[in-house]
Specification:
By secondary structure, the chain is mainly α. The protein is built from 22 helices and no strands. The chain folds into two domains: 399 residues, Up-down Bundle (Sodium/glucose cotransporter); 31 residues. Helix 4 packs across helix 13, helix 4 packs across helix 15 and helix 8 runs antiparallel to helix 17.
């Protein structure tokens, strides 16, 4: 069921191009506005932290948009179509993780008021773990954003006829311009605009499929008939791809690794004036994210309801499952002027929001974790250097996207890297905030060994392919030969390679906690406060419950010492 050339050529009309062009122009206009208004981005405090006086709503929406990339929209739709709606259970984990982040992690970062998240690690452990963590974050985000820029372009080219190179250039250059000129304020407000377009793209799929199949309820009727509404997977077997346990536990650790300690999110959470407002941003971002996530899941079921009897993948209409959503737009919505343009604008907006967030965040890390450590810059140069760094990262993403097809293996692995390093990095910050015994040696060995182990588990091969739910081509109207797929025998594969990707972050988290604790207790090392000649650590470095206990302990100890000195006549009443 391959689309004829004339169909592809006829997809985009004048209104579609107008909508796409308006999206890019509006994004760049926002960047120009903030470049020439207010403080005109002359200081790093304004450029990177928006002067710490942003409103709650744009920050909350930006927190969602920063990691809800085009890959997520395309992937979640295909997930629900081919594997069922079990994945929607992951939204429960967001509700569990949000109060933990808000009460246990966020107050520490907000209290320290550091521009780079990784400055915390030097204060708590030492300079080596800070450099190791920031380098890991930089590599992780550079590789991830190369995919974010490349993947939607290649998918949309294959189903809409939009030239891949033009797509990459338009999105990459527009994003680099507005994030470089307007700084954090431009990033936050363009995220707000782009989020509306993302919602518009996904909602249009749900509405259109509902009309096409005869009503919103009919989507779920057909999905149930096709086995897409089976929520009975309660197994604790880690080799089962999606279960309630893997989605809730794995989703919780992954969400915390992104929203509790990832610099991209922590930087946004510090753009408001008080910790209470920052916590409100986090709380409001949760329902915004869940609404988009659940709607995207339903859009996958809607497309399944439309193609229940003629699957595009088996009918050779698409060559990869991630092309499903754009294919539906081309196949079913092309006759409505502007609707394909709205969809493509929404997909590109998802890429824009992720890339712009990364440009700004990586610029902050580069200046504070690398440049400022190795050389002293005049204050007048710092703001200029930060803007140059943001621009350079945008160009690096562009270059990486252009050579992506030649580095397929590495770049396809970047998404796995993104998950594999999240759990270990969260564990390092957790060791620092929740214990007083953990030291730099333990944290460093735990982080390196944990990432190495998780990357081995994630990349090791051969590994069994996930089994799709039943598909049909009976309604395609012509004969299609569906190849027989031999049944998979799990025992033929090495056990670690069979473990679900949802357990990668929890396993990495537990490994670093255990190894870091054992090595810290067995291999003692002076803590930073001991090297500074202080008798106890700064309570501000620890999570609020532990910080409260430490303050009470130090105050009691101080009172005892004072009474002892008074009794010996050293101190007068």
């Amino acid at each position: 069921m391959t689309l004829p050339d004339k169909m592809v050529d006829a997809v985009f009309g004048i209104w579609d191009y107008i909508i796409m062009a308006a999206t890019m122009v509006a994004s760049m206009a926002i960047g120009l506005y903030f470049r020439f208004s207010g403080g005109k981005q002359k200081t790093n405090e304004e450029y990177l932290m928006a002067d710490r006086n942003m409103s709650i709503f744009p920050v909350a929406v930006s927190l969602m948009a920063s990691f809800m990339s085009a890959i997520t929209l395309l992937g979640v739709t295909a997930e629900n179509y081919y594997y069922g709606m079990q994945f929607v259970v992951i939204n429960i984990s967001y509700g569990i993780a949000t109060p933990l982040i808000s009460s246990l992690y966020l107050p520490v970062f907000f209290g320290l008021q550091k521009t780079s998240t990784y400055e915390y690690l030097e204060l708590r452990f030492g300079p080596h773990i800070r450099l190791l963590a920031s380098l890991t974050y930089t590599l992780q985000m550079v590789l991830y954003n190369g995919i974010v820029l490349y993947a939607p372009a290649i998918v949309l080219e294959s189903v809409t006829g939009l030239d891949r190179l033009i797509s990459i250039l338009v999105v990459g250059i527009a994003c680099t311009i507005y994030s470089t000129l307007g700084g954090m304020k431009a990033v936050l407000f363009t995220d707000l605009l782009q989020s509306f377009l993302m919602f518009g793209a996904v909602f249009s799929i749900v509405v259109f499929t509902s009309i096409q199949v005869g009503g919103f309820g009919e989507i779920f009727v057909r999905a149930k008939e096709g086995g897409r509404l089976d929520f009975s997977h309660f197994s604790v077997d880690p080799t089962e791809r999606h279960t309630w346990w893997s989605l809730i536990v794995g989703g919780c650790i992954t969400y915390m690794s992104l929203y509790a300690v990832n610099h991209t999110q922590v930087q946004r959470l510090q753009t408001v004036s008080t910790v209470e407002r920052s916590q409100q941003c986090l709380w409001w971002s949760w329902p915004v994210l869940s609404v988009l996530s659940i709607t995207t899941c339903i859009s996958g079921l809607g497309i399944y309801a439309a193609y229940k009897d003629c699957d595009p993948f088996l009918a050779h209409g698409i060559t990869a499952v991630d092309q499903l959503m754009p294919y539906y737009v081309v196949d079913a919505m092309r006759h409505i002027p502007g609707l394909p343009g709205l969809f493509v604008a929404g997909i590109f907006s998802a890429s824009l929001s992720t890339i712009s967030a990364s440009c700004n965040a990586l610029a902050a890390v580069t200046l504070h974790d690398y440049v400022s450590r190795w050389c002293k810059l005049p204050s007048s140069y710092i703001a200029v250097m930060t803007k140059l760094a943001a621009c350079c990262y945008g160009l690096i993403f562009l270059a990486l996207a252009f050579i992506a097809e030649h580095l397929g293996g590495v770049l396809q692995a970047a998404l796995t890297i993104f998950g594999a390093v999240g759990g270990p990095l969260l564990a390092v910050f957790t060791l620092g905030m929740f214990t007083t015994y953990a030291n730099e040696r333990g944290a460093s060995v735990g982080l390196v060994s944990g990432m190495a182990l998780m990357l081995w588990f994630s990349f090791g091969s051969p590994r069994p392919a996930p089994v799709k739910l039943p598909l049909s081509v009976e309604g395609c109207g012509y004969n299609i030969t569906v190849p027989d797929v031999p049944p998979i025998n799990p025992s033929d594969y090495f056990y670690p390679y069979r473990i679900s990707y949802m357990w990668t972050s929890p396993m990495g988290f537990i490994w670093v906690i255990v190894v870091g604790s054992i090595i810290s207790l067995l291999w003692r090392q002076q803590q930073p406060w001991e090297r500074a000649g202080q008798s106890h650590p700064d309570p501000a470095l620890f999570t609020p419950p532990l910080a409260k206990r430490l303050r009470a302990k130090f105050e009691n100890k101080s009172d005892v010492q004072c009474k002892l000195l008074k009794s010996n006549g050293v101190v007068q009443e």
